[in-house]
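In practice, a research group might receive sequence data for several interacting partners and want a quick structural hypothesis before committing to experiments. The following worked case mirrors that situation: the sequences arrive first, and a predicted assembly follows.
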Amino acid sequence: MAEEKFEPKVVAFVCNWCTYTGADLAGTSRLKQEPNARLIRVPCTGRIDPVFVIKAFESGADGVLISGCHPGDCHYNTGNFHARRRWTFFKELLNFVGIDSTRLHFSWVSASEGKKWVDVVNGVIDTVREQGPFLKYKEIKEHDFQEIEN
Amino acid sequence: MPDLIEIAKGLLESKEVSFIIGYTKDRFGRVKPYIAKSVEDANNLMFDHHSIHNLAVYLTRLKIPENGRVGIVAKSCDIKAIIALIQENQIKREQVYIIGMNCSGVVTHSTDEWKKENIQIKCKYCADKAPMLYDAVAGTAEPFEQPDDTQEVLMQKLETMSSAERWDFWAKEFEKCIKCYACRQVCPMCYCEQCLAEKNQPQWITTSPTPAGNFSWNIIKAFHMAGRCVGCHECERACPMGIPLTLLTRKMGMVAGKEFNYRHGMAIDQPTLVGSYNFNDNEDFIK
Amino acid sequence: MKEFIINTDEIANLISSLPADKWDILAPAKDGKSFDYVLSSDKPIINSEAPPSKISFKEYFFPKSETLFYYKREANEISLTEPKFAEKKLLVLAAKPCDAASLPILSKVFNWDYKDEFFNKRVNNSVIIGLSCAYSDESCFCTSVGLDRNNTKGSDIFLTPFNDKQYVLSVVSDKGDSFVKEFLPNLTEFTGTKETKEFIDNKPFDYKKTKDWIAANFENKIWAETGEVCIGCAQCAFVCPTCHCFDIVDENCDLNCGRRIKNWDACQFGVFTKHASGHNPRNSQEKRYRQRVSHKFDYYYEKFGEVLCTGCGRCTRGCPAGIDIGEIVFSISNQ
Ligand code: SF4
Ligand code: SF4
Ligand code: SF4
Ligand code: SF4
Ligand code: SF4
Ligand code: FES
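A structural hypothesis for the assembly, expressed as tokens:
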């Protein structure tokens, strides 16, 4: 079998009011972006429980992107401020257990920044592609579903 | 310095508190948590270097009447947990009568001798610190030789490893986990009525004690301690599988200190770290 | 009972001569601060004075997580696959009498109505070499539950130290007999007398009598007093050689496949008895702790004729709240 080129799966958690709309704008403006990101729309970055990120990796994501409104622009005023503090811890924690910043990315993308969205998402996909598949996490997940000899 | 038993008797006699959470010795001399409810019970209270348990955990496990008050025997590291619980609105300051103990360091096992090698690492960072918040103080602190921070060595080693090596280190540790949740139950800061690990609609954390299920559990437990862990090391003491859980919480504590110059459980009127924000928080990592 | 003399070299030879593709060896090894049973250990620690391991060896017979079957959906067909079962043998070397005895106790519950094929297979595929015990601390109480330092219950072969370098090897079961014939055919027969240390039980009780008190005292302050200190961590049940509760859950790998698994569970958890309706019949730690003692010393005895406890003291040594089950039953026996 010919070796297939690795195409990463990136899960992007985006807030409804800014980044999702920004990504939408990128689409309607017909800006070209790589198709590897699966967008998951959430009300606000404040709603992104880090457990979502763990679940994404567990379900086979090679990289995760989290994106929302710029500080001061959050539809709920402070959602992203709280989120930002949590991420500071979360990224350090993941790094400490071996999931470094090449797998987990953050950005602020407003509703008018269609171009920025495309740059961010393509950048993330390229970084993850360079890293290759996130085999370590897949291994522990697959361990559970392999027909292991008891 | 008034004696612990005298203070306790007075409180129970005057009915100022409905009970006192403290320590007692069983007939083999092993120290264990104890709830003194009467003046006679107060005679069984004691405190020494085997009083390792962080009794603050009982403040949320036992029902404290809304307008009632309970007594608690607490060394200075336990007082941090009490302050943290007040900061997090789990108890009110008036609900606890804190009998702060002057402490001379604690050792892990009932059979361990009180000497440098056995004294808990956390005591190194608390030596000579008298109780910070209290209604009464008892006991005398004796000087002790400070333990070596063996954890710091490991911590530095981990920091210099590559991501892949760190992953392998933790994968090996987490694999041992049997999901007994002792680390959660013993933790004074884990007081949720329903833990995320017990939710199954949707099921965020797989219940199986398998590599994947353990990874998500241990990561989420550690993350929920971000900016909240008071460093009592109870989780690690309780873990029957010997997983170095406090490495994770220590890391979270280091982030809190470095990024936000914050330490949890230091002042009852200080807003909690993850419950508040600052417009100018660092965001270098956000594109 | 046939008895032989075996020396440490012969034990070492035995370990190296067992074909690795057919046999796993589980033996105590020194891991950090505590003794643990470790698989395929090169340097087993055969030391009768060692304290019991922190966690019992039950996970090699009743794993903490075990797949019952895998399912897959293709079009409208659902197919089930059974997990592969390695027919590998397990030699447990130097098991404490309080560990070995747990297997026949557990066998009863795993065979009274449904026969747990996984458990049975593992037990049948194992050979347990027990080791006479010379350890004791405040937490042990094996003699109160009908065992003792030299009890061979659950062992196929039993070792008793004779001198620095030699053990008396007793053949206990037929399985043990065939094992000795196959792998240790050249041992010299032993005819002398063995001596062992006396066990001082710090909390002697008569397990046949405590049962009645427990049955008659469903409501008693003992439960409340323990329940308020117990933090419900279930460490006790997980390290215990005889606790055997499990939870059955399904986990999916994607929309069309998954597996059904059996995971350890314990009555000390609040959610253990929680109904889908939200009602929880054991809604306080007091009730849950009562269940722990009642199941071990009353219900199990009633149903199977033996108590669900080998007196190993693990639950006590590890309890973060300093609760001592032996002491509780001892105080019950004095009521
Ligand atoms: S996480 Fe561990 S060290 Fe931190 S407060 Fe909880 S029990 Fe104490
Ligand atoms: S792990 Fe998290 S959800 Fe569970 S009890 Fe602790 S703080 Fe609550
Ligand atoms: S105490 Fe240890 S074994 Fe138990 S759930 Fe926590 S990490 Fe896992
Ligand atoms: S180990 Fe101790 S505190 Fe934990 S559930 Fe058992 S008796 Fe209770
Ligand atoms: S209940 Fe405790 S003493 Fe009895 S078998 Fe279980 S762990 Fe050992
Ligand atoms: S709505 Fe976009 S971050 Fe809150």
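Before designing any experiment, note the following. The mean pLDDT of chain A is 91. Strands of chain A lie at 10-15, 37-42, 63-68, 104-108.
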